[in-house]
Every structure is written in structure tokens, then in C-alpha cells.
């Protein structure tokens, strides 16, 4: 329940901030001389941003403030309404789906890293060891659910129907030789489900936050080759040329950040530049 409570508190804080800004008649993006406020998932996004803040930002003349969010919705809505200036937590298919469904106008600035999606289990050591009728938990948001199913398809666990795309659901499974049952959960809840299900497909950031090591612990793991799910810095459309955003984009794709990612995450997070 820790993440749920934290999410509510952060959401309330973001809401209060929004009301305060509205009362002042301006949003955070209007002050180009102030700190750049970036919404981020705690791991690895906020960790990477805090590395930039602590080691690179001052020299570049950038004031940076990092706000942590534990859900996949508030960062975009906060960026849209001006509660924050930017966010760093998502990939292109997720953003496309979010903008379409919510009517937001968020755009990517620069891609920084990939968190490979993985299948994890406390009960089996290999995907082939899953028993007939086993329950597999998967993310319940549109894009990550499809991504999870594609991971299982690419590793021969299931077979999706031809043409199943970024909105695939269990209904798009053409062949399910183990008769697996799928339990759809909020992405943040998946690590905690491992004791209750036979396996779970978990996003990289939540896996790392739960002390799982994707490069070592995943039964199957996404390949970084030609992977469309790189995570990027994003802003509301029209703010791409904010000098602060440009500075942060350059720092996030610097050799120093690449080395930080390599050293800290040991293949569980992969730099995309």
C-alpha cells in the first residue's frame, strides 16, 4: 500500500500546486529563469535526474527540481496543466495512447534509456516450467499490456494473432499451449503480486524498485535491438525550445550520464544514445 498512499499524496500535492498556480494567473512554465520542475518515476528516472542535478546542472547553469510520482498518469496531466515543466518516465507508444485518450498535448524531447520488460516468478526458474493453467499477471494499461503479450509471444510462451499491435489484449492470443490465465493489474502492483501468481510481466522501473535485477532475475527479457520503448524527456507542445529543457536534454544524453547508467544498473537499464 506504500506506493498507493504515496501516489495519492503526490496527486493531491500536484492538484494543490495547480490550484495555487491558477490563482496566481500563471503556470510553472512561464518563468524561464526559475528551476525546471520535472516529474519522474522514482527508479531509474528520478535517480538519473538527481545525478544530473547533483553533478552536472550547476556547471551548465541549470536549476533543476525533481518531483517523484509512482503512477503512470499524473506526470502527463501535471505537465499538461503546468504543475510541472516536463516529465521523464514513458515511451512513445504509451504517450501516443495517453494523448489520444486524454486529449493532452505532450511531446518527446530526447530519448535517454530503455528499461527492458521482463517476466519474473517466485515459483519457477524458467518460462518453460510454467504449469498448465498457471496465472500470469500483466500490466492493465493498454500499451504495456500489449508489450507484455508481445514479450511472451516473442519467447514462445503464447502466440498472438497476426497483426496484433499496441492495443493487443489476451483476446488477441491465437495459441495458448499452457492454457495460461492472465490477471490484469496496475503496473506498480505487479512486483507485489509475485507471491500470489505464478509469474508476472513487470516494467523495468518497478522491477528495479522492488530489488529485482532484470538482467539476472528475469525469466525472459526484452531485447534492446530495434526496441520502440525507449524512455524520454517530454514537455507540453510549445515548450520544446525552453532553454532549460534544451540544457537538460543535452545533459541527459551526455557521456557522464551514459557511464552513470552503465555503472549503476549493470544492464538492467540501457542508455539509448
TrEMBL record:
<protein>
    <recommendedName>
        <fullName>Lipoprotein</fullName>
    </recommendedName>
</protein>
<keyword id="KW-0449">Lipoprotein</keyword>
<dbReference type="GO" id="GO:0016020">
    <property type="term" value="C:membrane"/>
</dbReference>
<keyword id="KW-0732">Signal</keyword>
<keyword id="KW-0472">Membrane</keyword>
<dbReference type="InterPro" id="IPR004872">
    <property type="entry name" value="Lipoprotein_NlpA"/>
</dbReference>
<dbReference type="Pfam" id="PF03180">
    <property type="entry name" value="Lipoprotein_9"/>
</dbReference>
<keyword id="KW-0564">Palmitate</keyword>
<feature type="signal peptide">
    <location>
        <begin position="1"/>
        <end position="22"/>
    </location>
</feature>
<comment type="similarity">
    <text>Belongs to the nlpA lipoprotein family.</text>
</comment>
<feature type="lipid moiety-binding region" description="S-diacylglycerol cysteine">
    <location>
        <position position="24"/>
    </location>
</feature>
Amino acid at each position: 500500500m506504500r506506493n498507493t498512499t504515496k501516489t495519492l499524496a503526490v496527486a493531491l500535492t500536484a492538484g494543490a500546486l495547480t490550484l495555487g498556480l491558477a490563482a496566481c494567473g500563471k503556470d510553472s512554465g512561464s518563468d524561464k529563469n526559475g528551476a525546471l520542475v520535472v516529474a519522474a518515476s522514482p527508479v531509474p528516472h528520478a535517480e538519473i535526474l538527481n545525478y544530473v542535478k547533483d553533478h552536472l546542472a550547476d556547471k551548465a547553469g541549470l536549476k533543476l527540481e525533481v518531483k517523484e510520482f509512482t503512477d503512470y498518469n499524473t506526470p502527463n496531466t501535471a505537465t499538461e496543466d503546468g504543475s510541472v515543466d516536463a516529465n521523464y518516465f514513458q515511451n512513445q507508444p504509451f504517450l501516443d495512447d495517453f494523448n489520444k485518450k486524454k486529449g493532452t498535448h505532450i511531446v518527446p524531447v530526447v530519448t535517454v534509456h530503455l528499461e527492458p520488460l521482463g517476466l519474473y516468478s517466485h515459483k519457477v526458474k524458467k518460462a518453460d516450467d510454467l504449469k498448465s493453467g498457471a496465472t500470469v499477471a500483466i500490466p492493465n494499461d493498454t500499451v504495456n499490456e500489449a508489450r507484455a503479450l508481445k514479450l511472451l509471444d516473442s519467447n514462445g510462451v503464447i502466440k498472438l494473432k497476426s497483426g496484433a499491435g499496441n492495443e493487443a489484449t489476451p483476446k488477441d492470443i491465437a495459441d495458448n499451449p499452457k492454457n495460461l490465465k492472465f490477471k490484469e493489474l496496475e503496473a506498480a502492483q505487479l512486483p507485489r503480486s509475485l507471491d500470489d501468481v505464478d509469474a508476472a510481466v513487470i516494467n523495468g522501473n518497478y522491477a528495479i524498485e522492488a530489488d529485482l535485477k532484470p538482467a539476472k532475475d528475469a525469466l525472459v527479457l526484452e531485447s534492446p535491438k530495434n526496441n520502440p520503448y525507449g524512455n524520454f524527456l517530454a514537455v507540453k507542445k510549445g515548450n520544446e525550445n525552453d532553454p532549460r529543457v534544451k540544457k537538460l536534454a543535452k545533459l541527459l544524453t551526455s557521456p557522464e550520464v551514459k557511464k552513470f547508467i552503465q555503472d549503476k544498473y549493470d544492464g538492467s537499464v540501457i542508455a539509448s544514445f
